[in-house]
Write a structure and sequence with these properties.
By secondary structure, the chain is of the alpha/beta class. The chain is 42% helix and 12% strand. Helix 1 runs antiparallel to helix 2. Bound molecules: adenosine-5'-triphosphate. The site of adenosine-5'-triphosphate (ATP) has 19 residues, from helix 3.
């Protein structure tokens, strides 16, 4: 299709980032041409990601341009925004699964969660130092590393700016190695604004996919930059426009949730019974209160509800 991802390949045949030396080295290379990876990732997104055409479009654009360029001018920096259960973690793990052997468990994939890694506000200076050293060290051993920052809205403001030197095109940190890295920020910040915009469109009898990226991007930037609780509060990362792709995850409707139920049943090897699909989808809360159009928890609780209905 337009994104170059007709589904011929099965996702398991994905290319992987391997190291020719078997251990960490300066150049982690792709074992098959990146174009094939782009193709397969696009296929996986097209097949399994429900109700997020904007996400698929943006992520594929970013990944395609970045991976096909043997000498990118800057790292790929994407920021995923949306309310709970809309697929932010799902998409990021899908990407690293295709790109890195072992996916999230790969030594080249680094996952940070503020609650786990940066829990105490009083240690922020130490965290800054550690984070900078960790990124520098890992980019030196493998230029094609990925860094995922989860729950950015719970990150202490000011901490994340320590990684600014690794995100832009102008700074030189250990030569040019850092330009092949991928950074993904994940957060609920801006989710409320995205939901409101989607609801407004629905009230105007327009398609939820009609949300323009520009509108979503400016609403999200405002929400994260101006919120003192946000990890991006007054952040240079936003100010200096270091994020290449701000990716809005839209709230999911009832029929999307049904599709999530079907996917989950298939994945668990269970029989797809229409009655169960309907019951699971119906059991999820929807907003607004009266019309009940969009799922309040996306597809997040689908898997656990299925076990209950079986
Ligand atoms: N758009 C989607 N398409 C298909 N499955 C989805 C989608 N969104 C969520 N899911 C399913 O729901 C599960 C939970 O979603 P995910 O963890 O990606 O949510 P999230 O947006 O990261 O939420 P949170 O902000 O709470 O972390 C996924 O593992 C996946 O099975």
């Amino acid at each position: 299709d337009a994104l170059g991802a007709p589904c011929k390949y099965v996702p398991t045949a994905a290319p992987r980032c391997t190291d020719s030396r078997g251990t960490a080295g300066p150049c982690c290379t792709y074992s098959v041409p990146p174009c094939k990876y782009v193709y397969i990732a696009g296929c996986d997104l097209a097949t399994n990601l429900v109700g997020q055409p904007l996400v698929r479009q943006q992520v594929m654009k970013g990944v395609k341009e970045f991976l096909q360029n043997p000498s990118p001018a800057k790292p790929l920096v994407m920021s995923f925004h949306g309310s709970t259960g809309t697929g932010k973690t799902y998409v990021s793990s899908m990407l690293v699964r295709h790109l890195f052997q072992g996916g999230l468990r790969s030594p080249y994939v680094h996952h940070f969660s503020p609650i786990v890694h940066f829990p105490h506000a009083e240690h922020i200076e130490q965290y800054k130092e550690n984070l900078k050293r960790w990124i520098q060290g890992n980019l030196t051993s493998c230029g094609r590393s990925a860094f995922l920052f989860d729950e950015m809205d719970k990150m202490h403001p000011g901490l994340i700016d320590v990684i600014m030197p690794f995100l832009g095109p102008l700074w030189v940190v250990y030569g040019t190695n850092y330009r092949k890295a991928i950074f993904i920020f994940i957060s609920n910040a801006g989710g409320e604004q995205i939901n409101e915009m989607t609801l407004d469109l629905w009230r105007a009898h327009r398609d939820r996919e009609e949300i323009s990226l520009q509108d979503a991007e400016s609403a999200i930037s405002k929400a994260v930059f101006e919120n003192p609780q946000s990890g991006f509060w007054k952040s240079g990362i936003i100010n200096e426009h270091l994020i290449d792709f701000v990716v809005p995850f839209l709230p999911l409707k009832h029929h999307h949730v049904k599709q999530c139920v079907v996917n989950e049943l298939v994945q668990q090897g269970l029989e797809v019974r229409q009655g169960v699909v309907q019951e699971v989808a119906d059991s999820i809360p929807y907003f607004p209160e009266e019309e009940k159009i969009f799922s309040s928890t996306g597809c997040k609780t689908v898997a656990s509800r299925i076990s209950f209905f079986f």
